[in-house]
Amino acid sequence: MNGWLAAACALLIGGIFPALCGVCTGPVRRRVQAQNLATVLAALTLLLLSQGYARPSYTDMALALAVLGPAGTLVYERLLGEELRSDRPPAPVTRAMTVFSVAPVPLVVLPVCAAATPGRTTVKLLLIGCLLVAGSAVCMRALTTPPGGDEPVGQ
Question: In this structure, what is the dihedral angle of CA atoms 150, 131, 34, 65, given to the nearest 10 degrees?
């Protein structure tokens, strides 16, 4: 077992399994946010496994997940909009959730880029990282912002 595989195992145990527990239990808001976090962490795990096993096809799966994961979260937000609007979290909690879902991306993508061969592979890894950050930020904003902008609740 090399360091990449050990990091993938640590991400699975420390990140994906708790996120999957959040997907399976609790209120609807937490389930959808945990689903968004689980897709980000799964894509990062695929990047680590790609480097650990020297299989570039895992990078392609991470790219597909980086594109389709936020789309799935936004579909859930659209379908469950009424339930999600009923209990909006306060602003500090919103910021913390966004940071927590975006922070692991550069911690994984940048070392994998440094270890990868320069060229198209590096560009693909950086594209995956940008898609994960942008998708996660957009989804968290959609899940935590009331419709119509930043109106105070109760008016």
Answer: 140
- Record the tokens describing residue 47, joined without a space: 């990047």
Q: Which two tokens stand for residue 82?
A: 């009424």
Q: Coil, strand or helix: which one is 154?
A: coil
Please identify every stretch of the chain with a pLDDT value under 70, giving residue numbers as ranges: 87-89, 91, 146-155
What pTM was estimated for this model as a whole? 0.87
CA 135 to centroid of chain Cα atoms: 8
| pLDDT recorded at residue 155 | 43
Q: What is the DSSP letter of 25?
A: S
3-state secondary structure of 41: helix
